[in-house]
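Is this the right way to post structure tokens for a design question? Let me know if I should format differently. Anyway, here goes:
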């Protein structure tokens, strides 16, 4: 089956079967709220129960799927996404408001994510461990192997409706787990369309369900003891509450941040400006590793800021379906209104506004602030908006301290050509990733990705997600003496 934006509601995927429900879900178009992007359904409690029961049953099959079969399934999904690249890109653009250029990049990343999942499925290895380290253990050898953990509950966010869901679905299939995925209610159509590809790839019935749900039903999934792992990407406040309610299951959280960038005096300024503009304003800043705080060495403060403000002023804000658009809308009116309140607060507290600062419906222009107290919301919390606050520094160690002065710790970008400062940053920054000579917004899909402090628990990236979705088991072989 194929889907056209704006046609009848898209059915939901329940254990390999397409169903509807009496609870319709209209999907807004952030760039044009008067014309919805499409529609689907919320799953009912009975449908949820059917999906979980099917996942439990299917796990008895998925856990025994050989590596070649898991690899084949994941490659077929990757190829299916590639064949529908333009359709999926247009769908992300319509329901997420992401500029089409960035939407297509997200599709390309998902193609890679499923292909990487296939490769990881085929190279899950254990090890042999010599155990004869004392006389009483003579003649014994250990062999380890990873076994799938069980049914997985997955909740994915709106800002990357395809690729962040893929980072849950692909490793689950690779590991041999069944999965129930709750896609974001703001833009569920993308993964439901991918579900058409998944449903044809040859998985056992019940191995994958893709069910938009109400918050109440999602809460039931968090607490459901039939799931052995919960993987959630979203806001810190929601994620940590989920962990508290998750019971005995393993929990992986990829949460938010207020990512910092350090621009050292040895940096290539033109490169730093060009990349920081992307890192700060791509997808209207609605990226958990979007540049939010900039720390610029005082020796290069003036030239950097002049180039940065000029570059931001030249960004094109507008229709996300236009390939020349740099910034589209924020996801909804509430997001734009919250950003407006935070900018107004920063200015009231003494912050200086260099550019932007005023919402126009769901659109918010690139916004640059200096002289802002670190207690302001735009500094201390996750803005998730196209805004940055900038501060000068004189000592590199002090810049590290200022980045660390945060409840978050996801990734940090460090622009420097001083090798010693690269190592100081790697050693001293309290984050999950240090990106040297690029923005914290950089990610490729096979690297370990995740944060510390309030930014999360565990790591994504195919190999590392698979480790969480499997349990290590040792067999000890004794030679009779």
């Amino acid at each position: 089956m194929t889907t056209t934006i704006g046609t009848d509601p898209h059915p939901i995927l329940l254990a390999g079967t397409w169903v509807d429900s009496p609870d319709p879900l209209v999907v807004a178009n952030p760039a044009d709220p008067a014309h919805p992007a499409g529609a689907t359904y919320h799953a009912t409690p009975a449908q949820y129960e059917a999906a979980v029961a099917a996942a439990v049953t299917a796990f008895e099959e998925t856990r025994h799927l050989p590596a070649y079969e898991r690899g084949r399934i994941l490659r077929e999904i990757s190829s299916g996404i590639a064949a529908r690249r333009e359709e999926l890109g247009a769908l992300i653009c319509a329901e997420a408001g992401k500029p089409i250029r960035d939407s297509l990049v997200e599709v390309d990343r998902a193609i890679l994510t499923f292909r990487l999942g296939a490769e990881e499925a085929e190279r899950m290895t254990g090890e042999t461990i010599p155990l004869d380290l004392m006389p009483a253990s003579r003649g014994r050898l250990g062999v380890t192997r990873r076994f799938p953990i069980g049914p997985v509950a997955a909740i994915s966010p709106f800002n990357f409706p395809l690729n962040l869901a893929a980072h849950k679905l692909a490793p689950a299939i690779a590991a041999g787990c069944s999965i129930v995925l709750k896609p974001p209610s703001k833009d569920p159509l993308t993964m439901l369309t991918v579900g058409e590809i998944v449903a044809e790839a040859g998985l056992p019935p019940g191995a994958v369900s893709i069910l938009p749900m109400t918050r109440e039903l999602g809460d039931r999934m968090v607490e459901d003891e039939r799931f052995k792992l919960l993987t959630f990407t979203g806001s810190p406040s929601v994620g940590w509450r989920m962990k508290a309610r998750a019971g005995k299951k393993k929990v992986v959280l990829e949460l938010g941040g207020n990512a910092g960038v350090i621009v050292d005096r040895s940096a290539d300024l033109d490169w730093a400006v060009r990349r920081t503009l992307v890192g700060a304003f791509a997808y209207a800043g609605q990226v958990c590793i979007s540049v939010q705080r900039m720390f610029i060495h005082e020796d290069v403060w003036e030239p950097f800021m002049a180039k940065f403000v000029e570059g931001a002023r030249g960004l094109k804000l507008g229709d996300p379906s236009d390939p020349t658009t740099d910034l589209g809308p924020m996801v909804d009116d509430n997001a734009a209104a919250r950003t407006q309140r935070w900018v107004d607060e920063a200015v009231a507290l003494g912050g200086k506004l260099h550019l932007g600062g005023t919402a126009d419906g769901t659109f918010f222009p690139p916004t640059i602030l200096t002289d802002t107290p670190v207690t302001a919301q735009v500094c201390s919390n996750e803005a998730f908006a196209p805004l940055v606050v900038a501060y000068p520094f004189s000592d590199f160690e002090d810049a590290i301290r200022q980045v660390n002065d945060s409840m978050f710790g996801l990734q940090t970008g460090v622009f420097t050509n001083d090798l010693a400062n690269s190592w100081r940053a790697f050693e001293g920054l309290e984050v999950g990733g240090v990106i040297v000579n690029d923005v914290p917004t950089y990610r490729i899909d096979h690297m370990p990705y995740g944060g510390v402090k309030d930014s999360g628990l565990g790591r994504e990236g195919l190999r590392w997600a698979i480790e969480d979705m499997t349990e290590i088991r040792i067999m000890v072989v004794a030679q009779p003496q």
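Format looks fine. Someone answered above. Worth noting: The first strand starts at residue 12 and ends at 14. The longest helix spans residues 100-121.
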